[in-house]
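= Tokenised fold =
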Amino acid sequence: MKELNRLAGGRWTSANGAVVQKFEPKESGRLLVGETTVKLPTGGMTMNARFGIDPRKDKVYYLDLHGETVYFGHVTLQDRVLVYEFDTLVGKPNRWIVKMEFLDDDRYRTMMQQWKDGGWKTVSDWSELTRER
């Protein structure tokens, strides 16, 4: 949870401005609430995420709502990379992995993979977000 709480404060923005994120700690840092807005050529979407401790698995859980689709999984720290592994809970079934690595206190890079045709396929290569405080 400590590594994820580094996201709290300010506003994270991609270089092209298409992705904007804000995160806020709750319950003395035991819960992290995030909102992400993505601008797409066909419109946009807002995603609402919650991170907290899953006491049964002793891991950080990840719950994310994208309109009518809901995702659930867990986040682990592998070396210096936060790895989100999650599945569709409500909506079209699928599996995903997001990797995120802090470059410094105000920059991180992220990428996304989707389970497709029996293997992991990169759907979003590494991109960088910068925090404005």
About this structure: The longest strand covers residues 119-132. The radius of gyration is 14 Å. The chain has a mean pLDDT of 95.
